[in-house]
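FW: tagging you since you asked about this chain on Friday. Here's the raw sequence from the shared folder, copied in full. Didn't touch anything.
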Amino acid sequence: MLNRVRSAVAHLVSSGGAPPPRPKSPDLPNAPSPQTAAPPEAPRSPPATAGSGSAAPAKTVEARASFSRPTFLQLSPGGLRRADDHAGRAVQSPPDTGRRLPWSTGYAEVINAGKSRHNEDQACCEVVYVEGRRSVSGAPREPSQGQGLCFYYWGLFDGHAGGGAAEMAARLLHRHIREQLKDLVEILQDPSPPPLCLPSTPGAPGSSDSSHLVGPQSCWSSQKEVTHESLVVGAIENAFQFMDEQMARERRGHQVEGGCCALVVVYLLGKVYVANAGDSRAIIVRNGEIIPMSREFTPETERQRLQLLGFLKPELLGGEFTHLEFPRRIQPKELGQRMLYRDQNMTGWAYKKIELEDLRFPLVCGEGKKARVMATIGVTRGLGDHNLKVCSSTLPIKPFLSCFPEVRVYDLTQYEHCPDDVLVLGTDGLWDVTSDCEVAATVDRVLSAYEPNDPSRYKALAQALVLGARGTPRDRGWRLPNNKLGSGDDISVFVIPLGGPGSYS
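HL: got it, structure written out here
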């Protein structure tokens, strides 16, 4: 066990090898191409190639070919090479000459300082049209009947152990959301309460009379209230699950390596839905006030959920880990002594007598950014990670990782927003070195330097946030103005204006 722990520690600090180039995953089965209310996007940034006049090794060419950035950046092969440069760490943003992102959204990103070979963050910004699958009555929908729904979509995907999962999620998650909303088009447009059941197709399983299965009604006298808002939340949650299942199905054939945290924003019918699975973060800065729109899911914040699962299903621990938490690793000489501990039911600490099974490695160990599940991974929610195993072991970690996001809702119609009110999305590369208050101060400083109707102000703000977290190169690495270390991670930021030039119609 000691050797296994040493291997785990060595794995955490190693940089790892480069992932092999991967073929593209197909789109959703039987899903039509996405329809958007905006003009077609520019072609995807082409893979960079080795510069002319030099015979680059085969491995270098493969690495370049496997590197891609968000389509809306419109990077040339030379731009891709600059974006992949760990030494220069040039900030990338959509060009001024191209089509602006919806709502004049600002975006900026920068590669890590050598943490991984490529930038493992990915981003997506789309306007998606949803056509209803059928009418509420169950009758087939005529093409001329009713109007579909349009939703705005932003997504940040922070990859780990490779960029395959993040790239796949960036291409397909919004399509899963569209599929989940197809049955809800007429329901969401109707102000009356949602129907409890949708009609099934005649002759389909479950369409026959089953009234004889209904029991006494005394316990079911009242009907739960289901809101339209909760239907959208459920559609987003289901979309995350189906995305994760698709990654599981295709992980071998399409080399969807690693996993990714996912932070998604959906604007639909006057409300903003922020879905987070991982340690990225979203905040609203409104008239100087900070409104948190997400929380991080880490081994520390989800300790009790992880411990409860380990308690209920001890076979998942493989006889190598204990679901109990102790202030530090127990030494064999401490057997029989009483030490502080806590289990899945406790937020405080108590003493217990140390027994032999307590010498196992803790399911949750470390604290802060060094906290790990099974000494391996530092996030507890996200997409992918289906092949993830404990170091030097065949013990899978995926059962402890949830793909379901927490969804928070913000009603734009309840407040009159000014052009300086923004929703900021950032991967953990931003938040590792920047607080919410520092972001709010940057919002005020940058936006006040631009005219309220200048749409470029939000891109400038995104760039300022990325530069502020990256720092400047010095003798001892990238440093902030206070000489503290800047972020060495990939940094990606969306700035979404909630008022002013953004149009919600």
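FW: Residues 4-26, 29-65 have pLDDT under 50 and may be disordered.
HL: agreed, and Residues 228-250 form the longest helix (23 residues).
FW: great, closing this out.
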